[in-house]
Amino acid sequence: MSKERRALVGFIAVACVLVVAALWIGNWLAAGGLSHAVAKPGQIVFISDRDGTADLWTMDADGSNATKLVTQMGNERETTFASTGQWVFYTCEFEQNEIQIGRVRPNGRASGKLLSTQGAQTHISTSPKLPIVSYISNSHVFVCTTDGQGAEKVLPSHVDEDFDTQGIALEDVPPLRKYSDAKLSSREGWIAAKSQGFGTESGNVSAGERAYISTGHDTLTVTLLDTDKQPVIADECSFAWSPDGSTLALATVGAKSKSFLALYAPKAEVAEGKMALFLQSRKAVVIGSPTLFGFRNPTWSPRAKLIAFEMIKRDKDGGRQSNGIWVVPVASGPPKQIVKGNASQPNWSPNGKFILYEDGADLMRVTVATGETKNLTGGQGTNRDASWSPILK
């Protein structure tokens, strides 16, 4: 081979390497570059319209360094971090006013839709330990990876199969479920979900909700029972898994029986060649009185020793009124009020020192040990849907 030919081949080889390197670097930068550790300890992501439209923002745990993370044409809604802190997920009106899931690095890079599929996608949930996301679409529950791959329907809207429930009530009516929320456990496959349209004592069929626990992937789904061993049917159901995924806290408002905050410990076993789902325990932590409508939005402390929740009371006209944020020991003991007034959406910090909550248009923080409160947003617009970064250090 001549000297000139060898030089040409060498040039082409080097050019190819540079092109490949440029493409790799471009893709790496588009994916966020050095962003694996961008999520700060205690960083908060939230929705704020302080600039005129509802956009995604971040701030430090004390409310400082508020920074707009991403701007879309439509209003952003909902927020949650991936278990690693490397992604922030949110929902937004991306196309034709259809709400879908978006994701962005905590440094604002690599923003865009999570899935390439069409259709509304709401009520996102991430597992505390697994790289998966769940969401509701067309009344079904789906899961996919945090990279938007492997989207799979895990809770179709149909009645339960006839399997051995060991005394747990089978599905009865209506025959079609309309799932409106679901929460992933840190245990693979476990999901808590609720369906609408079951009716309540007031006859408001569209508002009635029923709660379930499922092993996912269309295997076993059972209706949760209340303290009177009847299927949970309430005006509202809200729930949260313990950090290790072993126990579900369920809060109800306006149930047929008394409203309650209770704990459920599910267990799946194979008996006589047939899978069965058991609830090892059903413990009522708090039961409502005639003056209370119920309980809402439970959240576990990181060490699973306390549960914070909203309490709802009855006002003079018989309506519902917030009665602040309360904390109750998981083992035993009476609930204790730590925030008074119109407080909602409690969210425990990963280090266990604070509880984040909404108060009107502001995001507030209360120090659990002292009860000291701090306004994190200072009246700058309407602020809501906040989530803590899972990064501790």
Overview in brief:
This protein is 7% helix and 46% strand. It has one helix at residues 3-30; strands spanning 44-48, 55-59, 67-70, 76-81, 88-95, 98-104, 112-113, 122-126, 132-137, 140-145, 152-155, 178-184, 191-196, 209-214, 221-223, 233-234, 236-241, 248-253, 260-271, 274-287, 292-300, 306-314, 320-329, 336-339, 343-348, 354-359, 362-367, 373-375, 383-388.
Could you explain the architecture of this structure?
This protein is mainly beta. It has two domains: 43-155 and 379-393, Neuraminidase (6 Propeller); 158-170 and 179-348. It is 7% helix and 46% strand. The strands form seven sheets. Strands 12, 13, 14, 15 and 16 form a five-stranded antiparallel sheet that branches. Strands 3-2-1-29 form a four-stranded antiparallel sheet, with no helix packed on it. It has a four-stranded antiparallel sheet with strand order 4-5-6-7, with no helix packed on it. Strand 6 (98-104) and strand 7 (112-113) form a beta hairpin. The longest helix is centred in the N-terminal third of the chain and has 28 residues, at 3-30.
Index terms:
393 residues; mainly beta; Neuraminidase; four-stranded antiparallel beta sheet; 29 strands; 7% helix
Helix and strand arrangement:
Layout: H1 3-30, E1 44-48, E2 55-59, E3 67-70, E4 76-81, E5 88-95, E6 98-104, E7 112-113, E8 122-126, E9 132-137, E10 140-145, E11 152-155, E12 178-184, E13 191-196, E14 209-214, E15 221-223, E16 233-234, E17 236-241, E18 248-253, E19 260-271, E20 274-287, E21 292-300, E22 306-314, E23 320-329, E24 336-339, E25 343-348, E26 354-359, E27 362-367, E28 373-375, E29 383-388
Antiparallel strand pairs: 1-2, 1-29, 2-3, 4-5, 5-6, 6-7, 8-9, 9-10, 10-11, 12-13, 13-14, 14-15, 14-16, 17-18, 18-19, 19-20, 21-22, 22-23, 23-24, 25-26, 26-27, 27-28
